[in-house]
Design a protein that fits this description.
alpha/beta; four-stranded antiparallel β-sheet; globular
Amino acid sequence: MGTVGSRDFCLRLDVEVDFMFKSKNKNKVKIFILFLFILLSIIIFNNLSTHKYLKEFEYTYGFIRDAYSGFYILGNENWLRNKNRYKKMIKSCRNDTDYMNEMNLILKEIGDGHVNVVNRDSIINRILGILPHGFKKADWDEWIKEDPFSEKVLKDYHISYTDVREASLDSPLKYQDVHNLEARKIIDGKVGYIKINSMLEPNSSDINFRNDELRMKNFLDDGYETIIIDLRSNAGGNAFYWLDFLLPYLGIREGTSLNWISFWTDRASKVPSSYPLYDDSVKIHKLDQSKKEMIYKEFPDLRASTLDKTIFDHFNYYSRHSFTITHRENVSFSQRPYNLYFLTGPKTGSASDALIKFVKVNQLGKIVGERTKGDPVPYNPTVQMPYTGMQVSVPLTLSLPIGMPIEEFYYTNPDIFASDDIKAIKRLSDGTLFQFDEALIKVLENEGYWDH
């Protein structure tokens, strides 16, 4: 893909040009700059032919048409009718950067945030989530040895040990001024409030995630009985944030799980997980008539649903998946039981919606608010494109959570409906004013704390 080394090269370019402008020979300067820009285009861009870009687009289009599960869930098949317009966009590409930008625009029109071109920074962040904090070259070599395909991805994205090592170092540029996890004391020793803006990569090398851990520990030290977790502005992220961090800290026991059955088209079932950070041990089985009764037993209300025909007409294979809380090194399990409330709204989606389904099936707390945005994706691998080597993220399965009503396989309804309309402003014990919306008031009323 052609982006590696561009930062160092550009820094060198600035130094060289600055030095040469001090010389008297302006023509040499112009020639040198022209030479550098030509060299820069060769180093940074692969400059594939238009024919190759079009062939790769055809491959991507065909794969999404035959394997992407969203067409049967979101009803966004209109994207398929725009192929000729997309080909015109691809014909204008001069290099990999143009091509990636155009492909992202094209994929964005599908209307599913899970379908996108995976950029280099995302892959580096995922790698940091695998390697131990403060990893050394030996850890790097061992990881590549255990996962041979990772070496190909690293090569295609021009990612080296040094690149990942540098990214692991704390930098003021990476620090978010707005706290991802915001904690407030609503009632001393009784009710605490946590707002989580995004499900971060649970990466000990990330200063923002470490700050979330620190705030959570300090927050729980105050000894609350009831904790409100506000996910109304949380559009998702990484499910391991709540599996490995949030729920264990809130006292949810090891072994608690949410099981899924996922359905695959014929094309999707043939795709290995080319992204080295996904589990490639998933067992895919043929979905034939003999399996129907097993499926109906797991989902008693499926027969009466429109999904029944969709699944058995368009999907040829199935697999089982599980979100399970397991013991992991450096994970703290709270021994204290809490009364938990989870606030949801129309922005609560993806990994956040998966958390809400996990809570609902296991009856871990009350869900208060509005219906979620939905879009839980328990298995979302990436597929490598043949010429540029770029990775495209594509949800491949229609997945049903076992224990949930069929009507909530995508969205999730709250236990207590409430809006986020502000109803009152009160002063907390620390002297600050706090806005109480309808959902918060419903929680406090349910616990017997709201004073009208």
